[in-house]
Specification:
The complex is a heterodimer of chains A (about 250) and B (about 250).
Chain A (H helix, E strand, L loop, with lengths): L1 H13 L11 H36 L4 H16 L2 H15 L2 E2 L7 E2 L3 H26 L3 H9 L4 H31 L11 H11 L4 H29 L8
Antiparallel strand pairs in A: 1-2
Helix pairs in contact in A: 2-3, 2-5, 2-7, 2-8, 3-5, 4-5, 5-7, 6-7, 7-9, 8-9
Chain B lengths: L13 E10 L2 E11 L4 E5 L6 H8 L7 E6 L2 E2 L7 H7 E4 L11 H11 L5 H14 L15 H13 L5 E5 L7 H16 L3 E5 L3 H7 L2 E6 L2 E6 L1 H4 L6 H10 L1
Parallel strand pairs in B: 3-8, 3-9, 6-7, 7-8
Antiparallel strand pairs in B: 1-2, 1-4, 4-5, 9-10
Helix pairs in contact in B: 3-4, 3-5, 4-5, 5-6
Classes of the chains: A mainly alpha (about 250), B alpha/beta (about 250).
Chain lengths: ~250, ~250
């Protein structure tokens, strides 16, 4: 390992624009790793919440009440038709003003929802709006007659949704869900704007301190995101295969 | 499973009176009525679009009616206060397109409703489901998915799935219409066994030979009304109404 670190240290001296600083400087390496960890946490939380939002939203879209359906529709229109970056800023700076604070040490006033919290909320709602539409498309692909069969067996509306419609709809919408989640993972970089110490934030802080490290760090960003997305897509594809039903849909 | 107080088995188990039903401007049922006694097998025949399927779907509340009354074991089906679950435990339904749950194995299809709806213990339900699979002659197919079964096999799973709820009445909505001619017979044999055991059956069917053999009573519907009815011995030979005669001459 020392030899590799030594190589990059020397490279930085010969080619001043190619300072792979995080290959030999432990402090910078730590920043990259902590940024990566924050990005992973953000992604996992946002993926989970946005999928839940999608499922609940799609369920509410099938409600009898016109008001409930209108609320879901308004939600989708707002989050789908406005830039996620502006949403993030609005959530943090505007809504953040009105959230209660607490004071753990009696001196500092700390808002209950941190910047990380707001990033998770804002990005989850953003991706969730798309997920509602994705799940709805899947639900519409489930034949009415299959649901009728469940109805005639005495299933409640919730049971039909949970045990018949969702399992079938899920299989239909996995590919488009996959797409949206890939987008979501990449969109977590925008949390940079509200100082969430994720990968982009840490990278920028590195190249602000060491401008010579800018190009290498940008390259690193590309590589890490390619790998992150690859892990997600690999998981989703595995899942898709595991959910395949013998003799169905082909 | 409780019947309406006052209902006794010597009264009709299904009683349909003056039922009217429209889809938009199209009135598909224009005052239909008949009674079914416990253990009877009723066949409803008639040209396409005569309202047969709508009628049978009204009986378990899949379609609402506009006027009239449908009672199952004395209970009004279209009473808004009705516990639909209670009704659906009494009335089983089998569809033309089988409508099995494609993501569940044959056995799971049969087990699902008793476990989820009736909250019966899984082990007990499984034992019963296996017996039902044997009853519809599908031993060994328990772990196949619907997509791996033939149409006739899927339809028999659908029958077993309905029977798992221990219904008092079974509704069959053109259950052989989507099947290959070779597999029609295996499904009809299953229904015949059921009828022989005393299950009350209402069938919408185009299988005249079957109706003749199994039915206790045949109803002929055309354009939303019952044109003619009678026991099979006389229905096929002594039809009086010209519409019935024309229909029978085309189909027999």
């Amino acid at each position: 390992m020392d030899a590799v670190a030594e190589y990059f240290r020397e490279l930085a001296e010969i080619a001043p624009r190619w300072n792979f600083i995080w290959m030999y400087d432990e402090r910078q390496q730590g920043k990259i790793l902590s940024g990566l960890w924050m990005t992973v946490q953000l992604s996992v939380a946002c993926v989970a919440f946005s999928v839940v939002i999608g499922l609940v939203g799609a369920w509410m879209q099938g409600a009898r009440s016109r008001i409930v359906r209108a609320i879901v529709q308004a939600y989708i229109q707002f989050f789908r038709n406005t830039p996620p970056f502006v949403q993030l800023l609005f959530f943090y700076f505007a809504l953040g003003q009105f959230t209660p604070t607490h004071s753990p040490d009696g001196w500092l006033e700390v808002p209950i929802i941190s910047n990380v919290g707001w990033a998770i909320i804002s990005l989850s709602f953003f991706a969730g709006a798309f997920n509602v539409e994705i799940f709805r498309a899947g639900i519409e692909a489930v034949p009415e007659s299959t649901q009728e069969a469940a109805e005639s067996l005495g299933f409640t509306r919730l049971q039909i949704y949970l045990y018949v419609v969702l399992p079938l709809a899920f299989r239909v919408c996995l590919p488009s869900l996959n797409n949206n989640l890939v987008n979501l993972v990449k969109t977590t970089t925008q949390a940079f704007a509200i100082a969430v110490p994720e990968l982009l934030y840490q990278s920028v802080s590195i190249w602000n301190d060491y401008p010579s490290a800018q190009y290498p760090t940008m390259l690193l960003l590309f590589v890490i995101y390619i790998l992150l997305v690859a892990v997600l897509v690999f998981g989703m594809t595995k899942w898709e295969h595991a959910m395949r039903i013998p003799g169905y849909g082909r | 499973m409780t019947a309406e107080p006052g209902w006794t088995p010597d009264q009709p188990i299904v009683s349909v009176k003056g039922v009217r039903k429209s889809f938009g401007d199209n009135e598909v049922l224009k005052g239909v009525g008949f009674d079914v006694m416990k253990g009877e097998v009723i066949c409803i025949i008639g040209p396409s679009g005569s309202g047969k399927s709508t009628l049978i779907r009204c009986i378990n509340g899949l379609n609402e009616i506009d006027e009239g009354s449908i009672k199952v074991e004395g209970q009004e089906v279209h009473d808004p206060a009705l516990d639909k679950l209670a009704l659906r435990r009494k009335v089983g339904m089998v569809f033309q397109q089988y409508n099995l749950f494609p993501h569940k194995t044959a056995l799971e299809n049969v087990m699902m409703a008793p476990v989820l709806v009736l909250k019966q213990p899984k082990a007990e339900v499984e034992a019963r489901a296996r017996k039902l699979m044997a009853k519809v002659r599908l031993e060994g197919k328990e772990h196949q998915y619907p997509g791996e079964l033939s149409g006739g096999q899927q339809q028999r799973v659908a029958i077993a799935r309905s029977l798992a709820m221990n219904p008092d009445v079974m509704l069959f909505d053109e259950v052989t219409a989507a099947l290959d001619p070779e597999t029609v017979k295996e499904v009809l044999v299953t229904i015949k066994d059921l009828a022989a055991e005393g299950m009350t059956c209402l069938l919408v069917t185009h299988e005249m030979g079957f109706a003749r053999e199994v039915a206790d009573h045949i109803y002929f519907t055309d354009r939303g009304v019952i044109v003619e009815h009678g026991p099979p011995e006389t229905f096929f030979t002594e039809a009086r109404d010209p519409r019935t005669r024309e229909f029978l001459s085309q189909i027999l």
